[in-house]
Amino acid sequence: MKIVIPGGTGQVGRLLGRALTGAGHEVTILTRRPRGPREVAWDGATLGPWAAELDGCDAVINLAGRSVSCRYTKENLQEMMDSRVDSTRAVGQAIAAASRPPRVWLQMSTATIYAHRYDTANDEATGVIGGTEPGVPGYWGYSIDIAKAWEREQELAPVPGTRKVALRSAMVMSADRAGVFDYLLWMVRLGLGGPVAGGRQYVSWIHERDFVAAVLFLLGREDITGPVNLASPGPLPQREFMRALRGAWGVPAGLPATRMMAEIGAFALRTDTELLLKSRRVVPGLLLGAGFSFEFTEWADAARDLAGQVRARGKK
Questions:
Q1: Phi/psi zone of residue 290: left (φ > 0), alpha (ψ -120 to 50 degrees), beta?
Q2: Pairing of strands 104-108, 163-169
Q3: Which of 72, 154, 182, 267 is most solvent-facing, going by the fewest CB within 10 Å?
Q4: pLDDT at position 181, please?
C-alpha cells in the first residue's frame, strides 16, 4: 500500500513508519522540516503542494499535533487545540479535493477523552466521555475539549468515499529514546519509580508491536469506522504499573511521591501533573470484539520485553 503519514516524525510516527516500510509498504511523511527522501513539506494547517501525495494513495494516518508533554498554560493548550484541529481539517480538505481519494483515513485521537474514574473501564460502547467529573482540576476539561474537537473535525469532513477511524490511543510504549517508556525507566533508575499520590489512578498503555499490529488490522477492516480504543486489555493502577517496571529493570523499590511532590516535579520537568494523576482506565472493546489478538495483554510482560530491548541497545 501507499500510505501517507502527516506528522510522522514524532515517536509514534517513527516506529509506525519503520514498521510499515519494513512490511513492504510505500510510506510518505508530511512534516514541517523534511529531511529524508520520503519526507514532504507541509505547514499542518493549509492546503498546498503536499495534497498531491494523498491523491491516489491507499491510506492516510494523521498523527499531527503538538506534544502534550508541556506545562498546560493557556498558550500551550491553545496550540494543542489548533495544531490538532487545523491539521485534521487540512487533511480532510486534501482528501475531498483528490480525484482518487484514499480508501481509509486513520486519525490520531486520545484515550484521554474518557472520564477520570476508578470504578469501571471505558470501552467505546459504554465509556463515559470526560469533562464534567467532580473533584478534578477544572483545566483538565480542556484536554477533553481538545479531544472532542479533534474527532469532530474528522467526523465532519465531507469525504464520502473514504472510511474514517479515530484512534483513541493510550500511551504507546516503545524502547525508543525520549519516549514515554524511556522517561519512566529514567525515573526507576533514579529510585523515583514509586506510587504517585497513592497510586490508585489507572494507567492505560499499549506495546509498540500491538500498536502497529492494530493499525494494520484497522487498515484492512472495511467494516470498522468511528472511534477505536488502542489500548491493552490490561490497564492497572499506577502503583502496580511502576512495581512491574521496577521488577523488569531489577530495582527493588521506588520512592513514593505526594501530590505536592508531583506538582513540583512536573514544574521542574516543564510538564503537567494531569499526565500522572488522571485515572485512564481504558479497554479495547471494539478491537477484541472484531477478533484482534494482542501480543502483550499484561504490563509485566511488556515491561520485560521493552527493558530487554533497552539493555540490548546499550550493549551495541
A1: alpha
A2: parallel
A3: 267
A4: 95
* Residue range(s) defining the domain that contains residue 161: 2-314
Question: Residue 233: which CATH number?
Answer: 3.40.50.720
| Contact indicator for 106, 61 with CB cutoff of 8 Å | yes
**Residue-level length of the chain:** 316
Q: Which has the closest alpha carbon to 38: 48, 46, 57, 47?
A: 57
Q: Is residue 170 a contact partner of residue 282, using CB atoms and an 8 Å limit?
A: yes
Distances (CA, A) of 266 to 143, 234, 242, 275, 277: 17, 26, 17, 9, 11
Tens of pLDDT along 16-36?
Answer: 999 999 999 999 999 999 998
Alpha helices in the chain (DSSP H): 11-22, 74-97, 140-156, 180-189, 208-220, 238-249, 259-268, 274-277, 285-289, 299-314
Distance, in Å, from the CA atom of 267 to the CA atom of 304, rounded to the nearest integer, reads 30
Residue among 126, 112, 214, 127 at smallest CA distance from 165: 214
Angle formed at CA 68 by CA 108 and CA 287, multiple of 5 degrees: 30
CB 282 within 8 A of CB 111: yes
**59-62 and 2-6: which strand pairing?**
parallel
Q: How buried is 100 (Cβ within 10 angstroms: 0-12 exposed, 13-18 middle, 19+ buried)?
A: exposed
Number of domains making up the chain: 1
